Amino acid sequence: MSRFVEQWILVFVWGMTLASLLFIPRDKYRSALTIFLFKQCITWLLGLLVVEWGWIDYPVRLFWKVNATSFTFEYFVYPVICIFFMLHYPERRGGWTKLAYYAAFTTGILVPEYVIEHYTRLIDYLHWTWYWSWISLFLTFVLSRWFYVWYFKPVRPDKIKP
């Protein structure tokens, strides 16, 4: 695929992700921003590690002189997806439903990544496979959920000191 087409894929992804932000309820902006920033911290570290260790390469990317990771995915798309993951999390459902929710979001990210890896130069797996991506995505969702629950835990009235 030509570099021109790959650049337009990046522009399309940015446009769709920016448009999706319009669907965040106004009363959830604080939660959304907290989720977004926490997920960026995780993906920044993991993204840099896998690139520096030579497991993944991003031949076509934004800010190619500054950073070897995929700015589009690591710093924008994935954190925005995590916002929707958290805001629509099945809080009052059973364990199997929650596990299926994690698996659905993880697989929903992995399928386009796998297609992009095979048909474009936006991502190249060097010493990486699709199941490592699936595991790392799943675990970062779990870690983000733990943080979200910890950060936004409700204060019980019996725990408030006078």
TrEMBL record:
The keyword Plastid does not apply. The chain crosses the membrane at residues 6-24, 36-56, 68-87, 99-116, 128-151. It comes from the Bacteria. Keywords: Membrane, Transmembrane, Transmembrane helix. This is CBO0543 family protein. It comes from Paenibacillus oleatilyticus.
